[in-house]
Amino acid sequence: MAKGKLKIHSQNILPIIKKSLYSDKDIFIRELVSNSCDAISKLKVLREQGEVEFVDEDLKVEITLDKEAKTLTFADTGLGMDHDEVTNYIAQLAFSGAEEFMKKYEGGSEIIGHFGLGFYSAFMVSDQVDLKTLSYKKEAKPVDWSSDGSYDYTIDEGQKSKRGTEITLHVNEEEFLDAHRIKEILRKYCSYLPYPIFLNGERINDKEPLWLRSPSECKDEDYLAFFRALYPMDPDPIFWIHLNVDYPFNLKGILFFPKITKSFDFSRSHISLFCNRVFVSDNCKELLPEHLLILQGAIDSPDIPLNVSRSYLQMDRTVRSLGSHVSKKVSDRLHQLYTTDREAYEKAWPNIEMIIKMGCLREDKFYDRVKDLLLWETTDGKWTNAEDYLERNDYKKHLFYTNRGESHFLDLYKEKGIEVLISNTPLDSSVMSLLESKLPETKFQRIDGGIPDQILDPDKEKSVLDADGKSESTLIAEFVKKGLNDDKVEVEAKSLAGEGLPAFIAIDEQSRRMRDYMSLTQQELPKDLFGKRTFVVNTNSPLISAVYKLRETKPELAQEMVKQIFDLSLLGQRELGGDQVSEFIKRSTKLFEALI
Predict the structure, then answer these.
(1) Cα–Cα distance measured from residue 416 to residue 380, given in angstroms and rounded to the nearest whole number
(2) How far, rounded to the nearest angstrom, does the alpha carbon of residue 482 sit from its chain's CA centroid?
(3) How far apart are CA 446 and CA 72, in angstroms?
(4) Can you name the CATH fold of 461-502+531-595?
(5) Which tens digits make up the pLDDT trace of 362-394?
(6) Are 113 and 59 a contacting pair, CB within 8 Å?
């Protein structure tokens, strides 16, 4: 069996790097500035080793744009390179000087580079790249290196007299000869790098990232100022979480709970991802659980695995663990607020409930940590969780709820002093099903989802039998059933506790939830989703009594009134379909004419 070694030809690989390695051309600025910062960081490590002396004021990165000459120059005051190092690190593809340096000195936690390819991003926008460098080493001589992006280059002794490296790009794209565009790119990628960065003499990065400070050192106004710098057009956040993790991985960051406005985009990530203070991406979908993507802020970790172009995450165990850890930190912060300032938590609930409900539905561990924090507003304007509701009320494990706008039906429950929860979001049906699976024998029921004993008045039940052995309630139900003339509608006549509600449609709870789910997922609803409906008429209602009596003198009008009451019930419960509205209006006109 023969063995061999793979060979790489630079003349073949360099065009791939220039055209395909980086998704966006503007990344070359990030790469060259990062390399400059690495050169300075290495110099600081050498000072700690006693190999060089300098003052911090000398450390900087200067970028100079000359539009007439069509050049863009990146100059740093880092450790520089000698002839051999230029040959190794610049003229040798994919050989990382950063990796070699860290192995040798076991330091340089702020060093950014790893792959040894960033320098070549310069050729994406340049016809030629010139490099001038002078090493910190006392006997070193300056070096000039130049290449047009082919596999040929020139190298010679240079004239540079100060320590550091200067890279000049002969730019071939107008976009990168615009000072405003360069400034925009620098602020996007390099705002939080640790050394001063100048563009034509103007300082670009003058802010220390807040996430690097200890939470105990930060005040509310610091967090708000940081948020406004990130999202200048957004309203102030509700509260925030300061992440500071050293084990089992390094992670720092600040996450904000935003106020949800109509313009808020739920479809995209709102968190900026940094690696050693360098902006990587504003898409954290691979890093965070889906329910946390609504959060805003910044996360910085040197441990996240990036692809070669340092533009995207690569999924591995670290990423999954990091996401789980952030999820736990979020639940801990929610618990802290709930416990220490319940009033503030309740006030914040309308903005945070989507995060919590989605988290409960998507992650069992998150549910276990926050299940007691799931709040429901009551019709009395108070807040409660499911456990407390069940402890206060003896409704046979039922939790009654309503959607906003059902006041006509809600009065019946209020008259009986029944506590009713308010459902606000499209997720509520799924959350209710989840809670029912977790809380034995518990059942959520919308107030029009059945005929619970609590809303009946047995003392007023019309149970006297006629000569045929039928009660008045049975006779009323038969009359209404005949008036509707609809096989899909069952009719029950009940003695409800109040007189104000003439009738309602009792809709099966599980069928309603299925409809809500299908609407949420934009699935087509089957026409026979509900099967048979139950029309409950109130035998204590003056209107029902009057219509029932009207059958004796004006039977046709009485039947039309029955249909009208049925449609009114549908309308009040927001169940009257568009094709039924026209018929309802026509019938209303005829009934007005007949009654007048």
Answers:
(1) 14
(2) 53
(3) 67
(4) Four Helix Bundle (Hemerythrin (Met), subunit A) (1.20.120)
(5) 999 999 999 999 999 998 889 999 999 999 988
(6) no
